[in-house]
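Field reference: sequence -> structure
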Amino acid sequence: MKLYPLQFDPILKERIWGGTKLKSVFNKPITSDITGESWELSTVEGDISVIANGEYKGKSLTELIDENPNDLLGTAVYARFGKQFPLLFKYLDAREDLSIQVHPNDELAKKRHNSFGKTEMWYVLQADEGSRIIVGFKDDSSPKEYVKHLEDDTLISILDTVKAKSGDVFFLETGTVHAIGAGILIAEIQQTSDITYRLYDFNRKDAQGNTRELHIDLALDAINYNKVDTYKSYSKEVNQSNSIVDCPYFTTNIIPLDGKLTLSKSGDSFTVFMCAEGSFEMEYNNSLIQFKKGDTILIPAALKTFSINGEASILEIYIS
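Structure field:
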């Protein structure tokens, strides 16, 4: 099987808080003015990514993994996860505030939902003036204090609100209460999980006048009530992989590309590129392929040496 850099048809999701930036910024083929998410690379049940380029166009990611797991996933990833693809990649456009929510850890998610937990990170691609996010508590809290403020409709007063700008990175371990604020476009890298406990939704209603379901009881023992530091500083050395996040679930670097760079991989893990800015071409096995802003590329583990050339800002993700 000859593997090559894979692109996928975006899986577009309407959301009550969504907008049109996925089209205006990334030229995604949205058909709704409330498109909140583009799932770029997914094996979540019911939302399996389909290959959009090359010989395997039209084949699902799970089919390709099933046929050649070592070469696609990598020897170490296959040994650890079997044929499961362990990560989910998205772009999110928040025209309005998202709900305040939390994700369970692996243990709770396995017990309740037979799922991975949801450790995730955000890379801010664009933020309107004055945009902010909610990440954790201002000070150490407790279930009792949290419930009181929830009942009094004052939950926001004890949560930490941070202004957001392009290039900011926030790393959200499971249990961190959080919400993306209005006016923000982000790249999200997370464990393969769609388990979210919604705590508060600003009392808003959908077009039919209905409020969205909350998960107050489920969230109580999933929340980390301690103050957490989620902001990640990082260097931006040109034509190098600069570390941003290195956790048990994924490693994310940023490559500020200016010219040509040759990369060598071990074969232990697949690599994913998310092109945050600019454009570049990739040369592999005497072949050339072009990528632009908003593209997400899965580089099979068997593709150990390749070159990239252009002017771009690239998120590089793998499992170490």
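Note: The mean pLDDT is 96.
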